[in-house]
Amino acid sequence: MDSQEQQAARPPHRASTRSERLRATLRALGPGLVSGAADDDPSGIATYSQAGARFGHGLLWTVLLTTPFMIAIQLAAARVGRVTGVGLAGNLRAHYPFPLVATLIVLLVVANTINIAADVAAMGAALRLVIGGGEHGHALLFGALISFLQVWLPYYRLAILFNWLCLALLAYVAVLFYVHVDWGSALLALLLPGIGWTFEALMMVVAVLGTTISPYLFFWQAGQEVEEMRRKKSLPLLAAPERAAGALLRIRVDTISGMVLSNVIALAIMLATAATLHQIADSIQRRALIVLMSDLFDDPPEIVKALAHFRKAKELLRQGDWGGYGEELKKTEEILQRLEKKG
Q1: Do 86 and 119 sit in the same domain of this protein?
Q2: Does residue 288 sit within a domain?
Q3: 40-63 pLDDT, tens per residue?
Q4: Which helix (H) or strand (E) holds 30?
Q5: How far apart are CA 67 and CA 263, in angstroms?
Q6: What are phi and psi of 115, to 5 degrees?
């Protein structure tokens, strides 16, 4: 029996210390933690950032809504892999007609290809913000690096690397200690929807739900459970039912921890962008309205330019171009400052 699952199945001893229980919990983390972290991929981060930047605290409730669904779906996927010793695709092939399975796999490949393209493009755009250069070249570099790691590194090394990389996501939580967050408003928005139900808002709700509950994660976690079994030379639970208690408890701890972490990070991203990008855009919009209602409106060309830059900034925000969004807001700010100095 695997040591992690053996420890999970063993009843807690009275003499066990808090640190020992913590170490046992940390040892249980694996496929569920990595799957949860993978849910906060670059395209997911861009979606959460857009939600916070465009709607402020208005969509925080979606994080609370999706958490139990994520846990339930990922638990089912992980159990399928651990019980049968085969991934989701193999189980589908064993129980459903081939045309249906082939259709589902084709749809998954198409969705995964689009998702990977969005992730790599977002990584290229993020690197451009840090070091400059062309984002397409950066994206090609990331694609080549990821392909190399997948082909040349064995699974167990990748698994260790992925586990440690999960810590990087805590940077989004750290940001909340450096920005001003209206925690009263955030708590209320977490419990009650606080947006107008416009078409744009509904599309953002769909985007958040789609990026949070992603089909590739079902296959990912089930496949990782199978890989972990092979690495440890464990038997599927169908062949070793006496191991079920420890194995299923480990999966439960691992999956719940991973999904909660994933949504805590999503919440932190929304809060951070609401406190920064959304507040900046609101401030500029209020100042623009003051200018329009004052005698500074005597300079129509400058007003038109400011409005054009602000509209372009909002469009770039919808596209997820954070560099362009910041540049257009800066240009809008500069024009407003010139107008205010004239006054």
Answers
A1: yes
A2: no
A3: 888 888 889 888 888 888 899 999
A4: none
A5: 7
A6: -65, -45
DSSP 152-174: HS-HHHHHHHHHHHGGGGHHHHH
Ranges 10-24, 39-53, 244-258, 329-343: which has the least confidence: 10-24
Closest CA to 274 of 179, 187, 174: 179
Give the model's pLDDT for residue 14.
46
- Number of folded domains that form the chain: 2
Boundaries of domain holding 301? 294-342
Cα 129 from Cα 218, distance rounded (Å): 32
Q: Which of 241, 273, 305 is the last residue of a domain?
A: 273
- Say how many residues make up the chain: 343
pLDDT class of 194 with cuts at 50, 70, 90: confident
Q: How many CB atoms lie within 10 A of CB 189?
A: 23
Q: How many CB atoms lie within 10 A of CB 89?
A: 15
How far apart, in Å, are the Cα atoms of 124 and each of 92, 121, 127, 137? 36, 5, 5, 7
- Nearest-angstrom CA–CA distance, 27 and 4: 6
Q: Is residue 4 part of a domain?
A: no
